[in-house]
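Final report, closing paragraph on structural work. Over the funding period we assembled a curated collection of sequence-structure pairs, and we close with a single example.
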Amino acid sequence: MNKKDLMRKALLDAQAICKKCEDEKRDFTPEERAKVSALLAEAKKLKDEIKAEEGDAALKQSILDLGAGIELSDTPRAPAASVPAGKGKSIGEQFIESPMFKAWMKHIAPSGAVPESLKGLSSPPVEFKHLITGTDVTSAGAFVQTDYTGIYEPLGRYPLNVLGLVARRTTTSDLVEFVRQTTQVQEAAPTPEANVKYVTGATGEVSGTKPQGQMAFEKVHATVKTIAVYVGATKRALSDAAQIRGIIDQELRDDLLEELEQQILTGNGVGENFTGVLNTAGVLTQAFNTNILTTCRQAVTTLQVTGRARPNAWVFNPTDWETVELLQDGANRYYGNGPFAQGPNQLWGFPVVSSQSKPAGTAILADWRKAVLWDREAASISVTDSHDDWFIRNLVAILAEMRAAFGLIRPSAFCEVELA
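Its predicted structure, as stored:
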């Protein structure tokens, strides 16, 4: 056995010990550590002896062959004649066998030995068409590790601004009752002092009778409604991906609140729907007049005079509020804050909030304290496999639901404003 074979055997033995430790997922034992160190020292010693025995030119070729020819496995290499050109060869073999490298070597070293006096050598570039990092397990792609960041980015939802305007209360019943005044006392008048004890109808008599006022009320009922949604998931998914349960819970809660705001504004009162602001009888309206700004200012007067209310906020659809903010005068100056001004949105002195749940074309000016949401059951999440045949299929239903009632205790404190 020549020195090359001995060096190859030493490297194979060292690699076998390393592979054993990796398979068993452990560190070297003291004996194995000493054995590997001895094998590497032996291989280095053999390499030094080979270098001493061979000339510089032969040594270069031997080192290249050593990198390509020593396979660290017991599987014998196929004969060179059966391997297509450029296939199954190491990068070093393809490099030294390329026509460009051979021509360069012939030019600088006709005898095969590179003179020691030559300095700053630089070989010509050699193209390797098959040196591609990909996903093929036979290429470098087999060593590329995916970088899992753990980042999760949801699609996003519309901001829920109206929920922050309405009054929130709680109830322990399925039916909420409140009293709404329909007629108020308006009969007060100056009254002269009586000048007779008994009124006979004679000229000059003053009865001094005070005017009687009148009031009327009505009982209003708001039924507690249920808003719910569920999704299905496998038990394995919930067990293997801890993050998914939190994502599902949050998505379901967000969907409940989005539907709740939609119901507060546009519920039609049919079936299990709330009777929303825009469908409640007695809500005032302001017709469009001249332009948006003029119409909105008249709505303030309508609410204050006719509704006897003190408005505290506008609600606009985002596209309608964009139209308002882009209004300009004859000199192309913005009426409002403009693109660079800071500060909260306001229109005629009252705050403005945007809601995608508000249909475009009209705005609402109101005293939002007169809208009440009674919470019967806050949003809750429950999980069950008692749905259809889901128990035997390892499926579960994740259900989110809430129960609440909604009503306007004073509809005349709300005004729908036409914007066109």
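The CA atoms of residues 16 and 75 lie 14 Å apart. The two ends are 99 Å apart (CA to CA). We thank the funder for supporting this effort.
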